[in-house]
Amino acid sequence: xxxxxxxxxxxxxxxxxxxxxxxxxxxxxxxxxxxxxxxxxxxxxxxxxxxxxxxxxxxxxxxxxxxxxxxxxxxxxxxxxxxxxxxxxxxxxxxxxxxxxxxxxxxxxxxxxxxxxxxxxxxxxxxxxxxxxxxxxxxxxxxxxxxxxxxxxxxxxxxxxxxxxxxxxxxxxxxxxxxxxxxxxxxxxxxxxxxxxxxxxxxxxxxxxxxxxxxxxxxxxxxxxxxxxxxxxxxxxxxxxxxxxxxxxxxxxxxxxxxxxxxxxxxxxxxxxxxxxxxxxxxxxxxxxxxxxxxxxxxxxxxxxxxxxxxxxxxxxxxxxxxxxxxxxxxxxxxxxxxxxxxxxxxxxxxxxxxxxxxxxxxxxxxxxxxxxxxxxxxxxxxxxxxxxxxxxxxxxxxxxxxxxxxxxxxxxxxxxxxxxxxxxxxxxxxxxxxxxxxxxxxxxxxxxxxxxxxxxxxxxxxxxxxx
Length: 468
Ligand SMILES: *Cc1c(COP(=O)(O)O)cnc(C)c1O
Description:
Elements: H1 19-22, H2 24-39, E1 41-42, H3 52-58, E2 69-70, E3 73-74, H4 80-96, E4 104-107, H5 113-124, E5 130-134, H6 155-158, E6 161-165, H7 176-186, E7 190-193, H8 204-213, E8 217-221, H9 226-230, E9 243-247, E10 258-263, H10 270-282, H11 288-301, H12 304-326, E11 330-331, E12 340-344, H13 352-361, E13 364-365, E14 367-369, E15 382-386, H14 388-392, H15 397-421, H16 426-433, H17 437-450
Helix pairs in contact: 3-11, 4-11, 5-10, 7-8, 12-15, 13-15, 13-16, 15-16, 15-17
C-alpha cells in the first residue's frame, strides 16, 4: 500500500483529533452521563445497556455512506460492503426469530420504532383507513392511533381513523370481548397489538380471529418484548401476525433503530409495499452504522447466553413484583409475565410524578405511567418499572429484592414529604423535598450499591464521580 505522502491541510486540522481534545464540553457531558448510568438504578422498562461491540459498530465510519435503496439495487455506488452488512443483518434478523426466508422478509432500515410503525401503516393502509390499537392509558403506544377528544396527537390518528381498545378496569387485562364487539361496529382494516406498559402477554389466536372477522391485517409491535420473543420467553407473534415491528434498543439490547418483518406470502406485493414505504415513502438514506450495530446485536441474541439473559429478565421482574406485593403494594394485574411491572400508587394517595421525583433525587430512574382509573393524564397514578437494564448489569432475584426495599423507602419518604408540603401541589412537594435527611442518605446508599455492579459497554472505574 502506498504511504500517505500529503500533508493535512489547515482547514482539516481537527479531523483526526479525539473527542476529548476536540470538544471538551461534549466529552465532559458524555463522561457525566456515563457516571450517571453507572451510579444509578436504571429501571426504565424501555431502556437497556448495549454492548461494547454494538457501540463500536455504531460509532464506525459506516456512518459516512449513502445507500438509498436495497442491497443489489442502490441509488449510489460504492456499496459492495454496505450490501454485505445489510444482507447479514437481514439474515440474522430472521435467524434471531427462527423465521424462514421463504415465509418472512425483513426491512432493517427504519430509523427507530415510531418510524417503523408509520412505514408499516403506509404499507398496509390507505389514508383514512381504520385501525384499532391498544389505548395509551391501557399501556399502548402513541403510534398505535393515539388521539384525545380534543386533538389527533399521533400521525397514526392524523392520517388514519383510529379507535382504541382498552384493558378491563377491574382486572387490568386487555378486554378482548369489548375489542371484538367494537370491531364489529368500527370494521377496522388493521388491528395493532403490542404495548409499552402492559405487564402481561398477548392472546394472538384471539386477536387473529377478530382481525379475520373483518379481513383486517394483524400487526404486532413487539418493541418492548422482542428480546423475550427471540428467546422464546414470550408468546410467538410470528405464528399468526401479518407484520411484526420492533425497536432494537429495548430488550433486544442493540442500537436505537427499528425493524419491520412482513409475511411474504400474505399478498404477493406486501414485500414491495413495505420496502417502498420505508424508502422512498418515509425515509432517505439508511443509517449503515446503525444497521451494522443491529447485526452485531442480533448475533448476540441468537446465543444461549442471551436466552439466559431473557429468562433472568423475567425472573427478576417476578422477584421485584413479589417483593413489592409483600410490602402490601398494588400492582396492575397483580403481577407480571414479562419484563415490567406497573405499580398503582393511588391507594397510597401518591402520584407517579412525586415518586418519580424522589427516585430521581436518589439515583433511581423510572417513569410515571398512567394506570387504570386515572382521570388526570397529566398526573398519572402509577409508575412503570422494568428489569432489562439492570439484568444487563448482572442483577439477580436477590438484588431486585434490595431494589424493592429502596423503592419502598422512596414511597415512605414521598408520603412524609407530601404531608410536610401541606398541599397536593407538585411545586410545594418539590420545596418540601429540600433538606430531607432520608433523601440524601438514601442517595448515598443507592450510589454505593449501584457502583458495585459491572457496567456493560464501557469502563466506568476511571470516571470521577460528578460533583453535585
Ligand atoms: C418504544 C416503542 C416504540 C417507539 O420506539 P422509538 O424508537 O422510541 O420511536 C413503538 N412501539 C412501542 C410499543 C414502543 O414501546
